[in-house]
Design goal:
It is a single chain. It contains 21 helices and 24 strands. By secondary structure, the protein is of the alpha+beta class. It has five domains: 142 residues, Periplasmic binding protein-like II (D-Maltodextrin-Binding Protein, domain 2, 3-Layer(aba) Sandwich), CATH 3.40.190.10; 125 residues, D-Maltodextrin-Binding Protein, domain 2; 106 residues, PAS domain (Beta-Lactamase), CATH 3.30.450.20; 90 residues; 164 residues, Heat Shock Protein 90. The strands form six sheets. Strands 5, 6, 7, 8, 9, 10, 11 and 12 form an eight-stranded mixed beta sheet that branches. Strands 14-13-17-16-15 form a five-stranded antiparallel beta sheet, with helices on both faces. Helix 15 runs antiparallel to helix 16. The radius of gyration is 42 Å and the shape is elongated. It catalyses: ATP + protein L-histidine = ADP + protein N-phospho-L-histidine.
Length: 668
């Protein structure tokens, strides 16, 4: 082997064109990592490997110096910041090419999944969700991420990977096919650890060159194109990669070596930095926990998941799928395609449908086409067992796709129950509205007659010039007060009942024009003041009901004020697609325990204040009918703010919002 190596180097020496004198005088600094047999530190402390020999052949007359690096990423960084001139052989990736220049490709790294011999017959899909070892910063990280739900465990070197696999820290490792196999042969472990078929991916490799050394890049490419032959590359590969173990009776030797390696590995692992390993394991553990939580969450919410490869063939499924669709599991175990699963689900009755076979096939093919174009498709499907699923097909990236089936049977049952309760509530409200209207009308007639009789009695007493005792006069006053209170109650009932009827009268209301008459109708006490913001926004509602809402809010602020003087502020603003109004007072405020029930019918906060308890309920019902919402803020010191919002394009359907879309602070 040494003779072959010397012969190759001699041939390169005779065939190469000499570098210029200037280049020969400039030392070439080569960064290298421990990646045997491509590059490693030999027993004598010198850099050795395929990359080293190939660099010497291409730069025969240049002086080479070697600088160790911790990872491939650090090598690129060293080229970038001028600490090194060339790297060892590295895979060509977009990220690396954006940071350094590269020579013409000299070969390719084939990658494979390696595992213990007892699992070597499994397919790659069987390792979905398993622990996969990779070298930190290598292309293997990107490749391993393509294995569905893989839990990546990062190592510093390939030897660390092998050790982790042998001691059971990982289920498999991803490595460069040739170099990893050569390392296994060197350690006589190539019968205990074997690649999984088929191989994973292949990446062309080349030397990376510092952007500061363009003449070096040009010289190396010239030699690659003009003097380096495929046979010479083959000779170098034979030198460094050797041949597979062929002794069919060597299992005892291999396993004896394996035991020795395990023992040595355990001793070596104790000497590693415990802090660094603990931090790495913690990071890996967190990633694994996150992945497990995702899978457990999908199972917990009755989700069925299937993952497909680039050919849309099933490679992974969760317990939720096996539980929800047991008839389809045998198909998945045989690697059925998405189209086959969809067709069989209808033909076997797993999913209800009235399609013919041709229609089902056309639907499945269309589904596959949309997925490959990067589209996600969601629809509702119903099983023959009465369960309903939200079905989604979506691309996952890296050439993988997934089907999700979320059991929404319970949600649909709840929605149906809510709809039925809504109809019952609407029917009850309609009956209550009819009753309120009839009751108000039936009560109003005798009340009017009673008030008229009291007025006639007072007039007759005045004409007769009769003096009645004070207590009789008080009784007349009480009757008039009670009649007046009854009149307000009946009017409140009528207003509450008529809120629906007046929606059809909506028109564009100029609030600035209407506010003076609204304030005049309220009858503002002498010591109260109303501050109205100029340029209030308009809104499309029934003018009479808008007047009634504002009158009630202003009257409410006056009635519940605890002082002889007060200020009421009215503001309004357009916010997005909402028109928002505020009515603020400086009264005593509203206790927190009453804020949630203040809009309930017949709710009165004080027995000392006259009122029917229907004013705020009428306001809320009316604003809801406009498609808006209302709420109240109570200040911690004094005062309260009633805030209601109405859509710019006022809705006519009952929305039932209890909150406005914007807080009142948006108006200040």
């Amino acid at each position: 082997m040494v003779f072959i190596r010397l012969r190759f180097l001699l041939a390169c020496l005779l065939a190469c064109v000499s570098l210029s004198a200037a280049q020969a005088e400039t030392p070439v600094r080569m960064a290298y990592v421990e990646f045997p047999p491509y590059s490693f530190t030999g027993p004598g402390g010198a850099a050795e490997g395929l990359s080293i020999d190939l660099a010497r052949a291409l730069l025969e007359e240049a002086e080479l110096s070697f600088i160790p690096a911790a990872s491939p990423d650090e090598m690129i960084t060293m080229l970038r910041d001028g600490r090194a001139d060339i790297s060892t052989l590295l895979g060509l990736t977009e990220d690396r090419l954006a940071r350094a220049d590269a020579t013409d490709p000299l070969g390719a790294f084939g990658s494979a999944l390696f595992t213990k011999a007892e699992r070597a017959g499994d397919e790659v899909a069987a390792f979905s969700g398993d622990r996969i070892g990779v070298v930190r910063g290598s292309i293997a990280v990107q490749i391993a991420q393509g294995i569905p739900f893989a839990k990546l465990v990062e190592y510093e070197t390939p030897d660390d990977q092998i050790l982790g696999l042998l001691v059971g820290d990982v289920d498999a490792v991803v490595g460069a096919t040739d170099s990893f196999a050569a390392r296994l042969r060197l350690m006589e472990l190539d019968r205990a650890v074997q690649p999984v078929e088929p191989p994973l991916e292949e990446f062309p490799y080349a030397f990376y060159v510092s952007p500061d050394r363009p003449e070096l890049l040009s010289a190396m490419n010239t030699r690659i194109r003009d003097t380096l032959t495929p046979s010479e590359l083959s000779t170098l590969n034979e030198i460094w990669f050797g041949s597979p173990s062929v002794d069919p009776n060597g299992e005892l030797i291999a396993y004896g070596v394996l035991g020795l390696v395990l023992l040595l590995g355990m001793v070596m692992s104790i000497s590693l930095s415990l802090r660094k390993k603990a931090a790495r394991l913690e990071e890996v553990s967190q990633k694994a926990q996150a992945t497990n939580l995702l899978v457990e969450a999908m199972n917990a919410v009755h989700s069925a998941v299937v993952v497909y490869d680039k050919d849309l063939r099933a490679i992974h499924w969760n317990d939720g799928f096996s539980s929800a669709f047991p008839k389809l599991v045998p198909l998945i175990e045989r690697g059925a395609s998405l189209q086959e699963l969809v067709i069989q689900s209808y033909e076997t009755g797993v999913v209800s449908g009235v399609w013919q076979t041709d229609e089902t096939r056309h639907f499945a093919d269309d589904l596959a086409r949309k997925l490959r174009r990067g589209q996600s498709i969601t629809r509702m499907i119903r099983g023959r067992n009465g369960r309903t699923f939200e079905a989604t097909e979506l691309p996952l990236g890296n050439g993988y796709f997934a089907s999700l089936r979320v059991d929404v049977t319970g949600l649909l049952d709840q929605a149906a129950l809510i709809e039925a309760q809504k109809k019952e509530l609407e029917s009850a409200n309609e009956k209550l509205q009819i009753f309120a209207t009839i009751a108000a009308h039936d009560l109003k007639a005798p009340l009017v007659q009673q008030s008229s009789i009291l007025q006639v009695i007072r007039e007759d007493i005045a004409e007769a010039d009769q003096d009645f005792p004070d207590d009789v006069q008080d009784y007349f006053g009480m009757l008039e007060t009670l009649s007046d209170r009854m009149r307000h109650l009946i009017q409140g009932l009528l207003d509450h009942a008529r809120a629906d009827e007046e929606l059809s009268e909506s028109e564009l209301v100029d609030v600035n024009e209407r506010m003076p008459s609204i304030v005049e109708m309220v009858g503002l006490p002498d010591n109260f003041r109303i501050e109205i913001q100029p340029d209030l926004p308009s809104l499309r509602v029934a003018p009479a009901t808008f007047d009634a809402v504002m009158r009630n809010l202003i009257s409410n602020a006056i009635k519940h004020h605890d002082r002889k003087m007060g200020v009421i502020k009215i503001r309004g603003k357009r916010i997005g697609d909402q028109t928002v109004f505020e009515v603020e007072d400086d009264g005593p405020g509203i206790p927190q325990e009453h804020l949630s029930s203040i809009f309930d019918p017949f709710k009165r906060l004080s027995a000392n204040v006259e009122g029917s308890g229907l004013g705020l309920s009428f306001i809320k019902k009316t604003v809801n009918q406009w498609g808006g919402g209302i709420y109240v803020e109570s200040r911690t010191d004094r005062g309260s703010i009633f805030v209601f919002s109405v859509p710019v394009d006022t809705a006519r359907d009952f929305v039932g919002l209890d909150q406005c879309p914007m807080p009142s602070a948006a108006l200040h």
